[in-house]
Write a structure and sequence with these properties.
β6 and β7 form a beta hairpin. The chain has helices at about 35-40, 40-55, 75-90, 100-110, 150-165, 175-180, 190-195, 200-205, 205-215, 220-240, 260, 265-275, 290-300; strands spanning about 1-10, 10-20, 25-30, 65-70, 95, 115-120, 120-125, 130-135, 250-255, 280-285, 310. The chain is of the alpha/beta class. Helices cover about 45% and strands about 20% of the residues.
Length: about 300
């Protein structure tokens, strides 16, 4: 028996082929697969390619596939994603879940826990001992995703424009970001946000630039990072309260590229989350979230994975 576990994020998509013991045999990697940022056909293309790459020339059909992808908490997006999986055509049991759930399972297994995902976008998702779920954030880069890589980058660009307009304080982010994009004039920066030729990942990649400016004493950059921490902790506290977990012992799992690219943020959350749930511990996810999708796919193949219900 073999299964496929897929984590489709805003920047990258990872598909793992695993055997009946959960041992990863091979993998396929591709660009991000976000319905709203890329469109349905682009998502279908990415998913098909990573699945084909993981299976390769092996003569096998996966017994089950678990796909973790943002947006499937919304019924219309869930229907679209399931239609995509049907068109790809594998005759397998297919489980489609929120990408935050696969990250939580990768870090905490079947135990209670709360995952704080900060990549291109952000979301906080938790599951308690009663297998009830709750979430906060994850509403996209226009009206949400606070504390994400895109949010940090967007705040940096906004601070730069305020600075050059004379509406905000001076910041070394002006020179640092211009150098990063190899441009000479701040008037060119808006196209990075508004021009569809520039992927959102270009803005999300500015986190390390903001961290570097903060470490060199830039107050504007420091405040952006502090606000990112505040927003993620606020979301974590909301989920812990909804699930009545503030007094419980459980892990906070930190997942997503921001925590590796902006190490200060991981350290700051480790310090602040103790105030949210004093008996909790904080762990940086040290494996691919797709490993959680493998675990769920195996459960689905063996009779049906248990997906938490929102409280």
């Amino acid at each position: 028996m073999h299964v496929l576990g897929i984590d489709a994020g805003g920047t990258k998509t990872v598909c793992l082929l695993a055997d009946e013991h959960g041992v990863v045999v091979s993998e396929g990697r591709g660009p991000g697969a976000n319905l709203h940022a890329s469109g349905e056909l682009a998502v279908e293309k990415v998913l098909h390619e990573v699945m084909e790459a993981a299976i390769g020339d092996r003569a096998l059909a996966p017994s089950a596939i678990c796909l973790g992808i943002a947006g499937v908490d919304r019924q219309d997006d869930a229907r679209t994603v399931r239609a995509i999986m049907r068109r790809i055509g594998y005759k397998s049991r297919v489980l489609v879940v929120n990408d935050a759930l696969v990250a939580l399972v990768a870090g905490a297994g079947d135990s209670p826990g709360i995952v704080i995902v900060a990549g291109t976008g952000s979301i906080v998702y938790g599951r308690n001992a009663s297998f009830e779920a709750a979430r906060a954030g994850g509403w996209g880069h226009i009206i949400g995703d606070e504390g994400s890589g895109y949010w940090i980058g967007r705040e940096a660009l906004a601070a730069i424009m305020r600075s050059v307009d004379g509406r905000g304080p001076a910041t070394r982010l002006v020179d640092d970001v211009l150098a990063h994009f190899n441009i000479d004039d701040t008037s060119e920066l808006p196209r990075i946000v508004y021009d569809r030729k520039w992927p959102r990942a270009s803005v999300a990649a500015l986190g390390p630039i903001v961290l570097g400016a903060s470490q060199r004493g830039d107050a504007v950059a420091t405040r952006i990072l502090e606000r990112a921490a505040e927003e993620l902790v606020l979301a974590a506290g909301s989920v812990a309260s909804k699930l009545e977990m503030r007094g419980d012992a459980f892990p906070f799992i930190l997942a997503g590229g921001v925590f590796r690219g902006v190490g200060w943020l991981a350290e700051e959350l480790s310090r602040r989350l103790v105030e949210v749930a004093p008996r909790s511990d904080v762990r940086l996810l040290d494996e691919e979230p797709a490993a959680g999708a493998v675990r769920l796919a195996l459960a689905e193949a063996r009779g049906g994975a248990q997906v938490p219900k929102y409280k």
